[in-house]
Amino acid sequence: MVSRTVSASLGRVLRSAARNPRSLRSFATAANVPSPITEVTTLPNGLTVATEAHSHAQTATVGVWIDAGSRAETDKTNGTAHFLEHMAFKGTNRRSQSALELQVENLGAHLNAYTSREQTVYYAKSFRKDVAASVDIISDILQNSKLDSSAVERERDVILREQQEVDKQLEEVVFDHLHAVAYQGQPLGRTILGPKANILSIKRDDLSSYIKTNYTTDRMVPKLVKLAETHFSSLPVSSNPIPLGKLAHAKSGFVGADVRIRDDDVPCAHVAIAVEGVGWSSPDYFPMLVMQSIFGNWDRSLGASPLLSSRLSHIISSNNLANSFMSFSTSYSDTGLWGIYLVSENVMNLDDMTHFTLKEWTRMSMAPTDVEVERAKSQLKAGLLLSLDGTTAIAEDIGRQLVTTGRRMTPQQIESAVDAVTPDEIKRVAQKYLWDKDIAVAALGPIEGLLDYNRIRSDMSSLIY
């Protein structure tokens, strides 16, 4: 499974919430309910263990969050982290693949994994009585995978088929191109699956080397202390341990540029525009999320009313400038991408589409309204509730926060951080990150009508609302 960003990030939750507004609940109701405490323990070997007990839950989710993904690869080994994810379930020194699958099935458990640019995650959801068995299975997979050469060869075709399926998902393609142009020649610019040549050439030694380098105690956040002590005590310790939440990679540099793939056989133009955003630990993280929420998302095929959403949705819909748009705020350890993804069949008016979008961005630098800021804050807090629905989502939130920032904020703390965002804060971050800043653009489809890069870039500083 591939994740462009960590799947439980608030930005992604907001996009889901916008598509399913009826599922939102009042954050104020839950804010008055005390949250279970997240206990964080560091074992003697440096492994961080986070636990949170929910007495009413009949199921439990345990997993290991590793602070290493495709960003930890080289050009030659790009795709290794994702390849390893596939190999994790192909058998260990203690369990054959069939034995592993049978045990998971007999437990009624769900075993899964995903890879992103900065993290790799392995987790299991089971009945609470089977937690010990789940931890044993995950530890076995992480430490004892056979990485059989014949299984490696068989899996190449599976990954190539997955790559073909991803290539059909134009949103994924555009965002991969957006990363490639924004972080040119840098690890963040590479895809998660890697190029076809690497998928065909990665060897067992490449997989083994990645494990030895990156699957170390200082990069991991598993769950449950006693079981972790039993099953993970033999994990290797890094010769140069990096505290959780600290930068484990060379700092990335954002590049203002564009990439365009014209294909007139595609029915709609797909355009992503982004400025450099913020990392997970930035003090501007929450103001940038609120500003993302101000622009929100809109899709005419879902019957969403433009009058009930952002001002941009009203402009886009009333002038038939796009079929849909999705704002995003994607964070990494030291950088991020903040922007918008637009899809339009009105290919003769792509210049108007980008013009009015950037005009709205510019307005944030001068006159965000109290009403739209409060609405955005309410939607952001409602999105948080959706992101914490069930043990798997909570485990994801704990693992992601500890790996990326070194601590876990409670829902109440996040609510306070969101509530502290004011229109003046939005104006400040808009001036800091949007006004007259370089942009990265990725466009695919019938895009002949899209203005050239310099014309679009000039809109970032010349528009006066």
Automatic annotation (TrEMBL):
Please state every residue range assigned to the domain named Peptidase M16 C-terminal: 201-380
Q: Where in the cell is it found?
A: Mitochondrion
Cofactor(s) the record lists: Zn(2+)
Q: What SUPFAM superfamilies does this protein map onto? A: LuxS/MPP-like metallohydrolase
One matching Pfam family is: Peptidase_M16
Q: Which reaction does it catalyse?
A: Release of N-terminal transit peptides from precursor proteins imported into the mitochondrion, typically with Arg in position P2
Chief localisation class: mitochondrion
Q: What is one cellular component GO term in this UniProt entry?
A: mitochondrial matrix
Q: Which UniProt keywords apply?
A: Hydrolase, Metal-binding, Metalloprotease, Mitochondrion, Protease, Transit peptide, Zinc
Q: Which PROSITE patterns match?
A: INSULINASE
- Membrane-crossing ranges are none
Q: Tell me, which GO biological process terms does this entry list?
A: protein processing involved in protein targeting to mitochondrion
Boundaries of each Peptidase M16 N-terminal domain copy? Answer: 49-196
Its function, per the record, reads: Catalytic subunit of the essential mitochondrial processing protease (MPP), which cleaves the mitochondrial sequence off newly imported precursors proteins. Preferentially, cleaves after an arginine at position P2.
What is this protein identified as?
mitochondrial processing peptidase
Source species of the chain: Serpula lacrymans var. lacrymans (strain S7.9)
- Identify the taxonomic lineage of the organism of origin: Eukaryota, Fungi, Dikarya, Basidiomycota, Agaricomycotina
